Amino acid sequence: MNLVSTTERATKQATIADGGPLTPRVIQHLPAGWIIYRAGGEGLAWRVAGGVVRLDSTGKSGEPAFASLAIKGDILGCETLIFGTYTFSASALTECRLTPWPEGAGAAAGETLLESLALAQRRSADLVALRGGQAADRVLGLIRLLADGAGRVILPTRQDIADITDLRFETISRIIKMLERERVLSPLRIVGVHATRGFQVAPLPG
Questions:
Q1: Which of 60, 90, 113, 184 is least surrounded, with the fewest CB atoms within 10 Å of its CB?
Q2: By the 8 A CB rule, do 22 and 15 touch?
Q3: What's the pLDDT at 204?
Q4: H or E segment to which residue 12 belongs
Q5: What residue ranges in the chain does DSSP mark as E strands?
C-alpha cells in the first residue's frame, strides 16, 4: 500500500489531533505506517476498533523508543482528558480503525476506561516478557498476542517486531522463515495486506 508523503501525513495527522477537515468525532480508517499523533500534542481519545497501534516515548537522543502496544478494544490518548496533551506518540503498525472515545454516558465511559487500563497493565507485563528469553519464543509470543480468535494475524514490519522484542532485524527474518518451515505460520491471503504479512497461526499443541 502506498503511503502519503511525510508532509501530507503530518498535515492529515494534525486534522485528527486538532480537529481539522477529517471531522475528529467520526470513525477513522488509517493505513499501516500512519502517524496518529505525537507526544506533547493536543487532541482527543480514541478506541482501537481494529488493528494494532505502536506507542513510543522519546529517547534521550530525541529518537522514538518503543513503549507499548494498543490492540482492539484499547483506548488511546485518554491522558489528554487529564493532562491536556498526549504522553506517547502513536502510529499504526497495521491498518487500523479508530472510533471516538468516550462513546456514551460518563459512567459508562469510566467503566470502559478502567477495563482498558486493566488490560493495558496485563499487556505491559506480556511485553516485558517478550524482551527476554529465547529469541524464537519472543517472536512467537508476540505473534500469538496479535492473532485474532481464529488464529489469523497481520504482522507488523520486521523492524517493528525487532523493536518490540529487542532483537535484530536479521534475527526476526530468520525466525519467521523457521516458523513457516515448521508450519507454525502458514501464509494467508488477506485483502489489502502484503503477502509477507498475513498468516494463519497454528493452535497451541494439546
A1: 60
A2: yes
A3: 86
A4: helix 6-18
A5: 28-30, 35-37, 45-50, 53-58, 64-70, 75-76, 89-92, 96-101, 152-154, 185-187, 198-201
Q: Whose CA is closest to 145, among 106, 201, 83? A: 201
* Burial classification of residue 103, based on how many CB atoms lie within 10 Å of its CB (0-12 exposed, 13-18 middle, 19 or more buried): exposed
Using DSSP, state whether 162 is helix, strand or coil: helix
* Contact (Cβ atoms closer than 8 angstroms) between residue 13 and residue 30: no
Mean pLDDT calculated for residue range 20-37: 77
Angle, CA of 179, 181 and 186, to the nearest 5°: 70
Q: What is the DSSP letter of 2?
A: P
49-53, 113-117, 199-203, range with the lowest pLDDT: 113-117
Give the model's pLDDT for residue 104: 56
Q: Residue 137's CB: how many other CB atoms inside 10 A?
A: 14
Residue that is written with C-alpha cell 485518554 in the block: 78
Q: Are 179 and 140 in contact (CB under 8 A)?
A: yes
Quick one: average pLDDT of 174-195? 92
Percent of the chain whose pLDDT exceeds 90: 52
Sign of CA dihedral 29, 33, 38, 41: negative
Dihedral over alpha carbons 87, 120, 26, 109 (to 10 degrees)? -100
pTM value is 0.79
Q: Which residues pair with 70 in a beta bridge?
A: 53
| Residue 107 pLDDT grade (very low, low, confident, very high; cuts 50, 70, 90) | very low
